[in-house]
Amino acid sequence: MELLAAKVVERLNRAESAAELRFCHDELARELRRYAAREQMGQLANDIVSVHEAILRRAFFLAERETMKRSVGVRPSAWCWYVMGSIGRCEPTIWTDQDHGILFNCPENEEAACYEFIRHMATIGVDMLHEAGYPYCSGYVMATNKRWAQSVRGWEQQLVSYLDSGWPNDIRFLLIAMDMRPLYGEAELAETARKALFAAVAERPLLLARMGEHVQFPPVPLGWLGNVQTERWGPYSGAVHMKQSGYVQLTNALKWLACFSHVPAAGTAERRRALEANGVLTAPLSDAVCEALSVYYSIRLKYSTEAGDGREYVLWRALERMEQKRLKQAMRTAKRLQRFVARRVANIHA
């Protein structure tokens, strides 16, 4: 797989169209199906991340080049296209939607013209990625949304409003933004913004507590007797939603703990290692979380190699017996980590 990833990235660096980007995206999916068929999932995460990053960087480069060619607005003196969501956390599957934004810096008197450049570039990049097999984000977390394409001044003002109000949608925004990781352009802009966000939330105990309460939802679909609560009705009856069955709960809990412990990392694995090193997570709990994340990732990779809606749903009866056993244990770990966060939230309120 590593050799394939290197070849795909090399080809991507020469791509000149969305069709070429889509070809490489599809090739990655075809290769993963071969690995899944042989049950050789192994250490695929880094290779998958590398290919996704190469596709996105090339799309962003082509969007920038086209915008400059058309002489739209004024190119900012410094700007960064950053990613969030699963790609931001370095744990995407093959078919993932778009989660990204842009930060830029420029003289205040040029800001309007720079916004024109950024918005035009964002539109081209978003549409190109859609053609390459990355669906538009259903929550509109993309650089075509002004909330996610801001000057540094605008971003700081927006951030203060979310920090001070703390409404549920504001908390959702803050949790999403904590995953921001620079991918193309001036990396320092996004790195500085993420670190400032972590520091600002950590300095507000009541907001931190409310975010910790938010992490308790959705509940892990595992009953008291260890029964997995599958979908009861509709087209996915008998299926488990792999993201909502414990994966989201694990990543959000680690994100909150990272903020609680002043660890401004973007990736889930990096957060877990730092939390263990800092003594926030015991070694046994950290190992259990690592294993649970591995279980969710491997099953999601194996059973979601096809593009389209519903790829996160897996029929419980389609899982092998050992997969069912490991997934149940991963769900228990997710519930355990949620309780771990709940105790720390209670300490804040005490």
Mean pLDDT: 91
Number of helices: 13
The top level CATH class name of the largest domain: Alpha Beta
Q: What is the global morphology?
A: globular
Straight-line N-to-C gap = 51 Å
Q: Which superfamily, in CATH terms, is the homologous superfamily of the largest domain?
A: Beta Polymerase, domain 2
What is the CATH architecture annotation of the largest domain?
2-Layer Sandwich
User: The CATH topology of the largest domain is what?
Assistant: Beta Polymerase, domain 2
Low-confidence stretches: none
Rg value:
21 Å
Strand content: 5-15%
Total beta strands: 6
Helix/strand order, N-terminal first = HHHEHEHEHHEHHEHHHEH
Oligomer: single chain
The helix-and-strand class reads: alpha+beta
Level of helix content? 55-70%
Number of domains: 2
Pfam families: DUF294, DUF294_C
Domain Protein-PII uridylyltransferase N-terminal: 36-168
GO molecular function, one term: [protein-PII] uridylyltransferase activity
InterPro entries: DUF294_put_nucleoTrafse_sb-bd, GlnD_Uridyltrans_N
Can you describe what's shown?
The chain has 350 residues and is an alpha+beta fold. Helix content is 60%, strand content 7%. The protein has 13 helices and six strands. Strands 3-2-1-4 form a four-stranded mixed β-sheet, sandwiched between helices. A two-stranded antiparallel sheet has the order 5-6. Helix 1 (2-12) packs parallel to helix 3 (45-69) and helix 3 crosses helix 5 (111-131).
